[in-house]
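ok new one. same drill as before - structure tokens go in, u give me an amino acid for every spot. 275 of them this time. try not to just spam alanines like last time pls lmao
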């Protein structure tokens, strides 16, 4: 019921702010210790692990039956299963490569799904103090002020976000280059924040108009999905169909018209799904 979602929301907000303090302390360190995950450009630091632990320990202490899908837990062999049970989907630091370089665009991304439906979405960049929040049916906010997507319908008017991504797999990298080549001449501009979640938050806030990526995971987009939808935008599969949360593909846009025009133009990649 809504009383319990209120208490889930208050608790997660408090823990997210604590996580933000930790990230703010650690970002200043140069030459951070890091380990390689799936590729040379897919990294994990002690802070990713510490933030994930802080969030999972804090939430599971209060809500003993809740389940978790956490990026670093899954990377070290944890389960990746979304059931009807309340499930927190956590990326402790989205934009780890930025964090490693002390480039101040990283965030905690955390969402709560109940019956496989997103109820809470939070994206917090503590370096720039940007707190994006949404609850199902209640709109989306940046630091407590309502946000809304733009009304852009044309590619020629769109500020489009994309990413180089974290795998060096040639087919995927090629598609990134082809998409840049095809889109750069037709859109207003291309941007990249280095964090899937922050790109989605920027579409939600109307600062950019669309974003797509092949190779993301559910924890990169779980909070962004709710925040973009609550801000009036669309989140779909990059081929124009419905979003498939484990397909490792996402496209979000300010309007359905823009989403469809972008989907038709994309060179597509279909990574091995996560589940
Ligand atoms: C990555 C970032 C990056 C995107 C990758 C993600 P991580 O998340 O969001 O911008 O291109 O697809 O995996 O690894 O920093 O949490």
């Amino acid at each position: 019921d809504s009383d319990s979602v209120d208490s889930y929301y208050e608790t997660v907000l408090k823990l997210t702010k604590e996580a933000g303090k930790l990230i703010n302390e650690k970002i200043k360190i140069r030459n951070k210790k890091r380990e390689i995950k799936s590729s040379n450009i897919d990294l994990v630091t002690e802070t990713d692990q510490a933030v994930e632990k802080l969030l999972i320990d804090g939430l599971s202490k209060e809500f003993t039956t809740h389940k978790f899908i956490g990026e670093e837990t899954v990377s070290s062999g944890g389960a990746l299963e979304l059931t009807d049970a309340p499930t927190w989907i956590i990326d402790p630091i989205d934009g780890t490569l930025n964090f490693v370089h002390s480039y101040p665009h990283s965030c905690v991304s955390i969402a709560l799904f109940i019956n496989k439906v997103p109820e809470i979405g939070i994206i917090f960049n503590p370096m720039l103090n940007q707190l994006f929040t949404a609850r199902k049916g209640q709109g989306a906010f940046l630091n407590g002020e309502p946000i809304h997507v733009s009304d852009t319908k044309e590619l020629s008017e769109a500020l489009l976000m994309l990413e180089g991504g974290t795998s060096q797999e040639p087919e995927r990298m090629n598609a990134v280059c082809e998409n840049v080549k095809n889109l750069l001449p037709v859109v207003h501009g291309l941007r990249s924040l280095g964090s899937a979640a922050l790109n989605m938050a920027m579409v939600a806030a109307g600062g950019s108009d669309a974003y797509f990526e092949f190779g993301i995971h559910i924890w990169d987009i779980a909070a962004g999905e709710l925040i973009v939808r609550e801000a009036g935008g669309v989140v779909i599969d990059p081929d124009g169909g419905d979003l498939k949360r484990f397909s490792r593909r996402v496209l979000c846009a300010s309007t359905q018209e823009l989403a469809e025009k972008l989907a038709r133009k994309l060179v597509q990649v279909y990574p091995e799904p996560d589940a």
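The first helix runs from residue 2 to 26. and btw The pocket of D-MYO-inositol-1-phosphate is lined by residues 71, 91, 94-96, 163, 165-166, 194-196, 213, 215-216, 220 (CB under 6 Å).
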